[in-house]
Amino acid sequence: MLNVLIGKVVTELIDCLGPSASPTLLDMGNQTFSITPAEMEDLVRTTGTRKANALLKLSERHVTGKTVTKLRETRSATLEAVLKDEAGKVPMTRSFYETLGFVSAESIDVNSRHGAMVMDLNKDLVEDYGFRKKYTLVINNGTSEHLFCQESFFKNAHQLTEIGGYMLHALPFMKYVNHGFFNYQPAFFQDLAAANGYEIMRLEIADRNGSLADLLKPSDTLTRFWEWSDHLTENEDGNLLIVALLQKKTAASFAIPLQGKYFEDIESEEHRRTYKAQTRAPRPSKGFYFNDPEKLKYPVSRWKYRVKHKLLVILRKITRAAFIRLWPDL
Question: Where are the domains of the chain?
């Protein structure tokens, strides 16, 4: 679904491109519009977009918060019809993107809902369908985790993006139990970018309402993330997303990444040459090193971290033993 998180990221991006740009967009997986009028007001306020008035009018004219709430619960075809524009032809999601300034907004999926082009994203779109069109922005908003062939999917994203264009991924990070086949880690996008020469524009932890933590800023966020992750989001399931905005810089073919921290373990010179590009990728000067081939480094002293971790492990064991003793039949 097109939620306020994706709405904010895309709005900020197109505002940066400037009014003279003629950007095109592709959704990998069709998306049902699910931004309520109240969320649209928040989007306009937080992004400061120059399209504020047009977006607010679009939201008021086409959809109500009550309709969106029902749609989230049922996803029925009848309710989806309510989200079409005045002409009854263009889906609300496309209307949102075109209002932002995209000259075209298309999608690919295994069904034709919202006017999507019907293709299987498990397959190579160039080889199997001869589809070679390229776009300024390619969005993977909760699609790839439902597909088994990850190599094909991310290769397709690479091939669909024009040089200088962007790939936006918003995918399950924590929780999302049985939501799809996969959850994703920050290192996945660090090494994907390193192998293919992408520039990482954004790498964040988020929920559907917006960003919660910037993983590009030096911090010990990930070394203690589990301590406070349950308090990050108001989502009753504690579901958290990882958001990566990557810019494609070259015309090079898609390259499969290796997890960079294991580069020094490669014995074959041939294999070392295959993954050598990843060693040239920029890394933060401080903070958590996602894919450094050396051992992980922490901005807090290692002995303090180990002592704290050991004490927490002991506390858990004591708590568990007491629980079993008090309630042995549970």
Answer: 4-283
Report the topology of domain 4-283. Rossmann fold (3.40.50)
Q: Please report, in tens digits, the pLDDT of each residue of the chain (330 residues total).
A: 899 999 999 999 998 887 667 999 999 999 988 888 888 999 999 999 989 999 988 877 655 445 555 555 555 554 455 445 444 444 478 999 999 999 999 999 999 988 899 999 999 999 999 999 999 999 999 999 999 999 999 999 999 999 999 999 999 998 888 999 999 999 999 999 999 999 999 999 998 888 888 888 766 555 556 555 665 666 556 789 999 999 999 999 999 998 888 888 888 888 888 887 666 554 443 333 333 333 333 344 455 656 766 777 788 778 777 877 777 765
Structure-block tokens of residue 121: 């994203």
Here the tokens at position 93 are 């999601």
- Could you give the CA distance from residue 32 to residue 131 in angstroms, rounded to a whole number? 24
Contact 149, 206 (CB under 8 A): no
Helix/strand/coil (H/E/C) assignment for every residue in the chain: CECHHHHHHHHHHHHHHCCCCCCEEEEECCCCECCCHHHHHHHHHHHCCCCHHHHHHHHHHHCCHHHHHHHHHHCCHHHHHHCECCCCCCEHHHHHHHHHCCCEEEEEECCCHHHCEECCCCCCHHHHHCCCCCEEEEEEECCHHHCCCHHHHHHHHHHHEEEEEEEEEEEEEECCCCCCCCCCCHHHHHHHHHHHCCEEEEEEEEECCEEEEECCCCCCCCCCHHHHHHHCCCCCCCCEEEEEEEECCCCCCCCCCCCHHHHHHCCCHHHHHHCHHHHHCCCCCCCCCCCCCCCCCCCCCHHHHHHHHHHHHHHHHHHHHHHHHHCCCC
Tallying the residues shown for the chain, one arrives at 330
Whole-prediction pTM value? 0.78
Query: CA 64 → CA 58, 60, 221, distances in Å?
Result: 11, 7, 38
